[in-house]
């Protein structure tokens, strides 16, 4: 372990406790992220390229106050939608595509990481079922995230939910 650069436990705990002003900065960053997600969703249609969707999201976030990005804006579709943190390509979005949009703007020195799954046109029933199973697992994880809960308990709740899904 690199102890020279490790964060002392007390400093880490203090960083987890947010002042009112910090919470407001985080809310502002979330507002900017939502502007990007909304622009991406509105631009989605058959025939548009992934790069164009990412560009629309980034432009909307800049207009909303983004200073930059903590990571690239990711847009992946169709067979590429299984790529975690995949950069947008010149791939044209087709009818029935599942599209992953991931934005992480910086606003006021804070960031919010927002990822959404979107559908274009008529999507296969299996894709809808997979998304429903994921949302149920996410809800189980959120329900397990209580004060003092271990991270593995949260992961376990999500895994158990996915295992019972058809």
Explain what you see:
- With 166 residues, the chain is an alpha+beta fold.
- It has two domains: 9-123, Alpha-Beta Complex (Creatine Amidinohydrolase); 124-166.
- It has helices at residues 9-16, 20-43, 50-64, 125-144, 151-164; strands spanning 68-69, 74-77, 98-103, 105-107, 110-111, 114-119.
Tell me the domain tally.
2
For the record, give the distance between the C-alpha atoms at the N and C termini, rounded to a whole number: 42 Å
Treating each run of at least 4 consecutive H or I residues as one helix, how many helices? 5
State the secondary-structure class.
alpha+beta
The beta-strand count equals 6
Strand content: 5-15%
Show unreliable segments.
none
Average pLDDT taken over every residue: 89
Q: Major sheet, described briefly? A: 3 strands, antiparallel
Basic shape: flat
The CATH class assignment of the largest domain is Alpha Beta
Based on CA atoms alone, the radius of gyration comes out at 18 Å
> What order do the helices and strands follow?
HHHEEEEEEHH
Within CATH, the superfamily of the largest domain carries the name Creatinase/methionine aminopeptidase superfamily
Tell me the helix content.
Answer: 40-55%
> Can you tell me the CATH architecture of the largest domain?
Alpha-Beta Complex
For this structure, the CATH topology of the largest domain is Creatine Amidinohydrolase
The strands making up the biggest β-sheet line up spatially as 1-4-5
